[in-house]
Amino acid sequence: MTHFNDIAIEHLWDAEQWSYIRKNVGEWRGAFMQFSPMAHQVSETPSVLTLKEDRPNQHMTLVLKRTPPGKTTHTLERDLGYPGAIPYVCFFPTGAFSQGAMQRYPCSSFGAEFSLLSDHRRMRLVQLYKGSASGDHILDYVTLIPEYRFSDQGTPSETMPPVLTIDTLLGEWRGECLYLPATMETPQVSTSYWQAQGSKQELILSFTPDDNRPDQKTPKTVPQRFTPVDQQRWQAVEQSLQLWLLPGNVSCTVYPQLPKHYGAQIELCWYLSTHQRQRIVRDYDDTGNWLGTSLMLEARV
Fold first, then answer.
1. 145: phi > 0 → left, psi -120 to 50 → alpha, else beta; which?
2. Omega before residue 87 within 30° of 0, cis
3. Is residue 217 pLDDT above 80, yes or no?
4. Can you give the pLDDT at residue 211?
5. Which of 58, 129, 156, 198 has its CA 20 to 30 A from that of 259?
6. Are the beta carbons of 101 and 107 closer than 8 angstroms?
7. Percent of the chain surpassing pLDDT 70
């Protein structure tokens, strides 16, 4: 497991970004699995994404091909110049990244993309919200994109793990957190703590929020209570927040309706095994400003 304290994070915003992007170079095969606001899967589109460094230390080309069943292939091509698109797209030492809106505007769409990387496997997730006249944002869809890096020497099994279960979440998780502030100030490393207790009728999550900093003597622990909506969705009792359980051993947090002047934490969590997971969280304050993004590498205690 990567240890953030061993990384020269003072260079993370400049020269190191390119090396982190390089961890994503290759041909990635997978599918865009789209889910409705009710967490029902409505479509699945095979995809091939290729990232190539065609001019060393200067330029990369990204080509995405999606082929809906029975339809022609749609191709998207983008250029990426050194050192990357920071802070709009933030890459982490593991190769994980996040991009999204810098500001929530009342009548405009709002969304974010997350990507977690483990060896030759990658898990991406996109959330998109619609704007409204009231200033609230309404969840439009969630797209899960499981991928593997193709190789002539052999590829990992393409079997998709089943939908995550609550039993996988239960327990105590500890690890390291690397926080990248939107202001591009020095990134910060701290410890992370997350605990899930409960049953099929109730789930209580206790965790250290992403505004913890290394200079805090005692990390704050915030408990949240959730009750089940169905097998895939759990609703927070005190706020408009849901925890979704998705295929591929993935969970995410979504807001069916995100009120105006309401802070938000949007999260993707990928369970690599029964005792290891990665989380990436994008933070917004109650004025709609993006505050920063955190990556947590955690193990079950």
1. beta
2. yes
3. no
4. 47
5. 198
6. no
7. 92
pLDDT at 218 over 50: no
> Counting beta carbons within 10 angstroms of the beta carbon of residue 235, is it exposed (0 to 12), middle (13 to 18) or buried (19 or more)?
middle
Tell me what the mean pLDDT of segment 82-86 comes to: 85
For 255-275, give one letter per residue: b (16+ CB within 10 A) or e. Answer: beebeeebebbbbbbbbbeee
- Answer for the pair 9, 187: CB distance below 8 angstroms, yes or no: yes
Q: Which long-range contacts (CB under 8 A, 24 or more apart) does 127-130 make?
A: 127/252, 127/254, 127/266, 129/255, 129/258
C-beta of residue 210 within 8 angstroms of C-beta of residue 294: yes
pLDDT at 215: 43
Fold of 4-300: Lipocalin (2.40.128)
Output 13 or 275, whichever has higher pLDDT. 275
Distances (CA, A) of 22 to 51, 70, 156, 168, 279: 9, 34, 20, 32, 21
21: DSSP letter: H
The token pair that represents 197 in the structure block: 């207790």
Please give the single-letter amino acid code of residue 75. T
Q: How far is CA 258 from the centre of its chain?
A: 18
pLDDT at 109: 94
Quickly state the pLDDT bin for 160 (edges 50, 70, 90). confident
261: which 2 tokens? 């002047």
The ranges assigned to domains in the chain are: 4-300
